[in-house]
User: Which sequence fits this backbone?
């Protein structure tokens, strides 16, 4: 740090957003002292904006209705600090006002967290994208702290379309497997110790992370997708029978060799409306529809092609075929295994754009629960999405809305995560799923859940 400014020697990543926001505010206040006034003003305005409560009066009412003594005590602490922060602000002690205002909001947040209850019959899940838990090489520690926070389901990402973090004879093994060993075996052992369900997060079609040789072989064999512009894509084509067989075999291998509770599908779709337009798709589409296609892919392009509607329907059928087949094969292998999926929140737009008709899967009974990825910081939009989803879903299929605590388009504070859980419950959700369990979530969100949302031990009958 010099007179001219500040130099960062590393990319400023979006994890631990609260601490980094404060860090940047401190730098601004140091470099330009005049900034301390608006920073203090903002900190004071934010003191009582906690969760779903709209201001101090609503927060007081919510806390008092909970009847939790510790929550009431935290509320009183927040009030005292609030008055002190305002006094410091009035006397232009802006640095002190900022510090005190933040402490006030932390006390109010604690009161908010403590005022929530644990619903013992709901599914309380977390996605884990790394497949390593929060502590690489130590699944026991991850499982222990998840259980302590009231989580009862872990959805660990253990396989993509061309790579696995476990001892697979169907898919190539990953660098994660080489470095840390069989992650699925370690995860299941730890989960059983702490009474957590394991629903293996299996990414379909997408070849991200697959060995170069594996991808090249798939492409050489005509098994990968092609864009409308003729560009090769690192995705397996869902219309190719051998790709469908690969997905089924890789999933059956999991349920045969590991004591898991379910399979959780992701990327169970096309990458977008720009795919797939490979020659194999052309042959299969013309055979299925008995249409004479002279201009490919122009004749089937969405919105402009003569057969665009037919092609949208045909693509959707390719995705649904795998879901239907997995449902059948999993029921045959083990009737207790649950099949679920992470799906796009905006329906029916996802049917047209990516061939993902998850409402149809639910109505047909192919899935046991779905996790629509309702990643947004806008609570009104979150509510709008979920209300629409509930109206379309059959009552017998559970829905656990996905809450994007650290998603690409959503970075939520702990009280915002709890707020979306509260909204989901009030609207009739069967549970909820948080993205993405990591060290950041471990240090920020889990403690908030442990205070109220997941305080009491869950009933495994959910």
Assistant:
């Amino acid at each position: 740090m010099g007179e001219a400014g500040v130099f960062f020697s590393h990319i400023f990543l979006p994890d631990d957003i609260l601490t980094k926001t404060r860090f940047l505010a401190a730098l601004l206040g140091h470099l330009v002292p005049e900034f301390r006034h608006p920073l203090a003003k903002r900190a004071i305005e934010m003191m009582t904006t906690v969760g779903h409560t709209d201001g101090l009066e609503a927060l007081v009412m919510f806390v008092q209705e909970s009847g939790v003594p510790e929550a009431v005590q935290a509320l009183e602490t927040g009030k005292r600090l609030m008055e002190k922060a305002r006094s410091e602000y009035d006397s232009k002690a802006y640095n002190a006002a900022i510090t005190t205002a933040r402490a006030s909001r932390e006390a109010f947040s604690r009161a908010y967290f403590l005022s929530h209850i644990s619903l013992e019959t709901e599914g309380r899940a977390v996605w884990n994208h790394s497949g390593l838990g929060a502590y690489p090489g130590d699944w026991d520690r991850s499982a222990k702290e998840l259980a302590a926070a009231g989580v009862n389901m872990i959805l660990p990402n253990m396989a993509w379309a061309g790579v696995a973090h476990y001892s697979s004879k169907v898919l190539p093994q990953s660098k994660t497997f080489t470095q840390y060993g069989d992650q699925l075996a370690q995860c299941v052992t730890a989960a059983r110790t702490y009474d957590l369900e394991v629903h293996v997060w299996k990414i379909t079609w997408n070849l991200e992370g697959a060995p170069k040789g594996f991808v090249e072989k798939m492409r050489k064999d005509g098994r990968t997708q092609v864009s409308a512009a003729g560009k090769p894509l690192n995705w397996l084509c869902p219309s190719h029978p051998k790709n469908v067989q690969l997905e089924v075999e890789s999933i059956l291998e999991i349920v045969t060799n590991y004591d898991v509770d379910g399979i959780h599908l992701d990327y169970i779709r096309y990458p977008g409306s720009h795919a797939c337009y490979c020659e194999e798709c052309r042959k299969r589409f013309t055979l299925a529809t008995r249409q004479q296609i002279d201009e490919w892919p122009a004749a089937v392009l969405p919105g402009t092609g003569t057969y665009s509607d037919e092609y949208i329907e045909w693509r959707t059928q390719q995705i649904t075929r795998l879901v239907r087949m997995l449902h059948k094969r999993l029921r045959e292998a083990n009737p207790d295994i649950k099949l679920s999926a992470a799906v796009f929140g905006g329906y029916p737009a996802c049917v047209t754009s990516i061939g993902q008709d998850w409402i149809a899967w639910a109505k047909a009974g192919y899935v046991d629960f779905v996790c629509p990825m309702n990643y947004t910081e806008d609570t009104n939009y979150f509510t709008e999405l979920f209300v629409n989803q509930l109206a379309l879903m059959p009552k017998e299929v559970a829905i656990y809305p996905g809450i994007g605590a650290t998603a690409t388009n959503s970075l939520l504070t702990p009280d915002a995560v709890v707020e979306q859980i509260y909204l989901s419950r009030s609207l009739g959700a069967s549970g909820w799923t948080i993205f993405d369990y990591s060290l950041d979530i471990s240090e920020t969100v889990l403690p908030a859940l442990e205070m109220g949302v997941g305080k009491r031990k869950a009933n495994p009958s959910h």
Notes: Confidence is low (pLDDT under 50) at residues 457-462. Residues 308-333 form the longest helix (26 residues). The chain has 17 helices and 13 strands.
